[in-house]
Amino acid sequence: MTTMSIDYAGWQARAAALSVDAGLFIEGQSCAAQDGAVIEAINPANGVKIAEMACGSAADIDRAVASAKQAWEDGRWRYLTPRTRMDIFRRWADLVEAHALDLALMETVTMGKPITDALTIDLPESLVTIRYFGEAIDKVSGSVTNSPQDALHMVMREPLGVVGAISPWNYPLLMAAWKVAPALAAGNCVVLKPSEKAALSCIRLAQLFVEAGGPAGVFNVVVGYGQDAGRALALHPDVAKISFTGSTGVGKQLMIYAGESNLKRVSLETGGKSPQIFMPDLQDLNTAVDRAIMGIFDNAGQVCNAGSRLLVHADLHDAFVDRFVERAASLYAPGDPLDPATSLGPVVSHTHQHSVLGHIMRGMADGAALALGGAADAARPAGAYVQPTLFTGVTPDMAIGRDEIFGPVAALFRFEREEEAIALANDSVYGLAASVWTSDVRQAHRMVKALEAGVVWVNCFGDGDMTQPFGGYKQSGNTRDKSLECLAGYMQSKSAWLNLA
Description:
Helices cover about 40% and strands about 20% of the residues. With about 500 residues, the protein is an alpha/beta fold. It folds into two domains: about 10-270 and about 480-495, Aldehyde Dehydrogenase, Chain A, domain 1 (3-Layer(aba) Sandwich); about 275-465, Aldehyde Dehydrogenase, Chain A, domain 2, CATH 3.40.309.10. The strands form six sheets. A seven-stranded mixed β-sheet has the order 14-15-16-13-12-18-19, sandwiched between helices. The longest helix has 22 residues, at about 115-135. The radius of gyration is 23 Å and the shape is globular.
């Protein structure tokens, strides 16, 4: 993806002139909520209102699901030839790329993501997602089994119907793409309920799908609160599947809603408290520490698989902490997210800022040692900033080392033996991701097998591509995003046995 060079003043001017269509998107048209309700989109960097978005309710979910159901039943999407749907996906990706600057800006002004991150991480990865699943459309195949001579048995793969997708605010466009692209590629119709905290880019994503030739009603967006719009989507009897990324508590509630309604499928990617394990024989301490810092402070720590638990061997402990404190202060200094030089923006809201600071206070009260940060950014009181924070001397009984904080807060544990590191790493209700830093391939192999996590990195953190299934063990969820495994999750098998006698 190519981007133009825009300086700080240029981004400020572009933000001031940003024009958005913040209505619901149903049947290919922007519309108001039935009751006229709106939600204010607030810039967390300065508290300024960006836009008023239509706030959908259960009645609007009913409208959107009815639109998607009609599109499903008349086959305007699933019955298109695979090549036609692939061409629409290609045009869709090209339009997203053409509008990359405004889409990135929407991410920045609604949830505080640094503009450089939006342009170099979120937008390119969103494009890769759309193109990957678009290319997969004509690769879906069934099978013919070895049946008796007088029979023919075929196993076919078919879409589910109407898929309800509930996406989070930390990577608004990318997480929406992770759900919508495979659901559409499989032939389903979609109702997306993005987080009300950062929905502008998601609305635009659906508009661009229709501009690319996607049939109206196939991809609908209803912005609204989880307890109303999200609940209505999860309970709706015409929704065949709910795909959700967010908190573990909400994920559990969605499974209850599925049972109370139509036993719809529920795919969950929920919380995380990922361990990064640093063995004494790692090859390059400086590189390991820098990647550890990135693993927790990227996106202001608002990452489901953030490597927030640092498990450091006693032989490395002091040097590791010294290096971490020195490098983190320079790599992640709070700044205006519209400044291309900024690497640490605010958290998504003042409410979330207060939650993160509350966890920090709890950590200090429990006896953990504050080695770095631990406060709001006094230089930017209007913004929802939290300083990069490191606790040392953390023990397994401390909340700071157990709870998902979803902010720039790292908890460092000291260990002395491999078995102790594995026990500490697995002592969590979560199991989304983990990493091991070692130069011993045998040790790495043992630890990969022993770690209870859906994704394990060795001598890196966060690396991967679209072929990598992403999801966790235990209370981190029950699904995988990305990869062809994900695509299969938006389909079902049909067995056809033909009697030829």
